[in-house]
Amino acid sequence: PNLCTDDSCDPTKGCQYAPNTNPCNDSDACTLTDVCSGGKCAGSGKLECGDGNPCTNDSCEPAVGCQNIPNNAPCDDMDACTSGDYCAASVCLSGKKVTCDDSNPCTDDSCNPLSGCVFSPNTKVCEDGNACTFGDKCSGGSCKAGQLNDCNDSNPCTEDVCNFNSCLHPFLEGGCEDGNPCTIGDKCGNGTCSGTLVANCGCHSLKLDGTSGRGRVSYATQLNPTGPFTVEAWAKADQVGDYSILSRWTGPGSSQRTFRLRINAEGTLQFGLIVQPTNGAPQEVTVSKSGVNLVGAWHHVAGVYSGSQALLYLDGALAGSASATGTPVASNVPLFIGAAFNPDNNSLHRYFRGTLDEIRISSAAIYSGNSFVPAPRLAVTANTIAYWGADQDQFTTLFDTGASFLHAALSGGTTWSTDTPATVCIPQPDFPPSTPGVAITPPNPADADDLKCVINTPSQDMEKDPITYQYQWFKNGVLQAAYTTDTVPASATSPCPTWQCNNCESWTCRVTPFSDGTPGYPGEASATVGTLQCKPCDGSVHANHCYKYYASTDNWGAAAVVCNNWGGYLAVVTGAGENQFVDSICAANCWLGASDAINEWVWLWITGEPWGYAPWAPNEPNNQGNEDCLMMWSNGTWNDAGCNGYMPYVCERNP
Fold first, then answer.
1. Separation CA 173–CA 616 (nearest Å)
2. What is the DSSP letter of 428?
3. Residue 236 CB neighbours (<10 A)
4. 351 pLDDT more than 70
5. For 576-623, what is the HEC assignment?
């Protein structure tokens, strides 16, 4: 029957088919209003199928109506800080993060999701490229010059000039002051100030007040001789008393005593030591000489252990001996100069009242036989453990100019005297320069930064000798012998281990000052590389990738957006080990990052990785009800599911 006609029969005319205007169905799902006209069903207007989603291709099929098919076209996620946004499963996913870098150190580069890259002026320290300025600083987005560099090299024999490229120091002629009180007629020559040495100049000794003045050398293994040794000094007392000259003798136990050199108020000079024989207990050995007077004149005193005897010498003459065999007993106590430790009340006593000079400890029996001529001025030899020559007139440290640098800290009533057993002390010994202040820049280096070791407080030399610096670099405490300048290139440093921000590389710069070949105490600075840039894993780590389980339920597209905002993607599983791991952290059924929405039955990972491993559950995938998204059952097998369903999911992030 024709629904668009009213059918009747006229007795005269027979059957009549009168057109009507009834509603009808023209069998085209793409028309809006179907009405009968002229005996036929005709639709008017077209169905609007556009869903406003750039990630679907919209069309109308007469048989089924609107079709919104997912595509993989480029799109815009409305975030100005991403580029290359793309469609997947009807959702616009963010592309790569935009790199905002104008290569200007005077701007802080950032990205605003609404407006894009932002370059904000900062006030950081910078370098304006002019060697004649220092303290340059950023202002208004550009590097502004700081203070003018006066190029002062502290050399009276050079003129200090700065041009745009560098400091210049042309030589000067004429008189000058070389800083050495033992020279006269100082004048400049080839950039160096020097004069003629004067005899009978430059000698000093250590003056002690007898009540509190002393020197103390902290414990060091070098102070424990392992065989024959010699201790010696020049001494001049102001009055008779019970005095200690040198003492490593702090308690009753043998482990607290090694040697001592002293004189008592009765005029008995003593050298004592502790030796460990091959068999038996440690043995105390003492050699004495009575009737000794050190008041008012310089006297050389020495104690020697030869391996078979303990020997005491006064002014080069053998004053006593005793049999002694064994190894000197090691102790962990300090060395006192001009005082001794009193174990009865844990304090110091036997303070020397007078002057000491030319103090030396040697790892050999320097003197033997009945006599020798003591040198008024000693020197460092191959056997020297420590040598305190006292040829200085300042500082509260008695410098050891031997190889061990066992400097003595001075306390109490100590001063410097020009009264010495020697009359000529030229040339003066080289005292070590002071410790430099050191820093590493930048203070929080990134993986791409060179490490620069900066001396922010230069060393000082008592004799005003030129100072040079030795650079050493240590990585995690291990010396890196290849790096001997103030810089370690970024190529030598490594990024923090994946996800382990508490295990980044620690670099230490050690700077040792030298003056006339004499090293001083080094300065050190350390920095940890890459900590600020390290990206910790706030989930679980597997095969250097970070995985995070989200228990909150979302549909597949929303889950993909959450993973993208986290800096990753819905988990992409490409092997049995990874599948087992993801299953272990997923407490229930979970979304995975694959879909066949673009091409039915052709499954694609959201990252574009090749499709291969696929542990489908039995009879899956089956595309029942247009199931286009991948999920994992709680037993680790896979299933295709409708993308609009809700379930937990696992996100994955690359290192």
1. 92
2. P
3. 21
4. yes
5. HHHHHHHHHHCCCCEEEEEECCCCCCCCEECCCCCCCCCCECCCCCCC
- In angstroms, rounded to a whole number, what is the distance separating the alpha carbons of residues 389 and 387? 6
Q: What is the pLDDT of residue 201?
A: 58
Which residues touch 491 (CB under 8 Å, ≥6 apart)? none
Q: Which of 564, 612, 620, 561 is nearest to 589 (CA)?
A: 620
468-500 burial, b at 16+ Cβ within 10 Å, e below that, comes to ebebbbbbeeeeeeebeebebeeebbebbebbe
Report all structural domains of the chain as residue ranges with CATH numbers, in order of start.
20-96 (no CATH), 161-197 (no CATH), 205-417 (2.60.120.200), 437-528 (2.60.40), 540-653 (3.10.100.10)
- Which residue do the tokens 């952290």 mark? 585
Q: Tell me the pairing of strands 506-515 and 451-457.
A: unpaired
**10 Å Cβ neighbour count for 165?**
10
What is the maximum alpha-carbon separation in the chain? 174
| Residue 621 neighbours by CB distance under 10 Å | 18
What is the pLDDT averaged over residues 606-625? 93
How much is the pLDDT for 501? Answer: 81
Residue type, 587: A
Give the predicted TM-score (pTM) of the model. Answer: 0.44
Q: Are 334 and 248 in contact (CB under 8 A)?
A: yes
Does residue 200 surpass a pLDDT of 60?
A: no
Q: Is 269 exposed, middle or buried (0-12, 13-18, 19+ CB in 10 A)?
A: buried
pLDDT one-digit tens code per residue, 25-58: 888 889 888 899 888 998 888 889 999 899 999 9
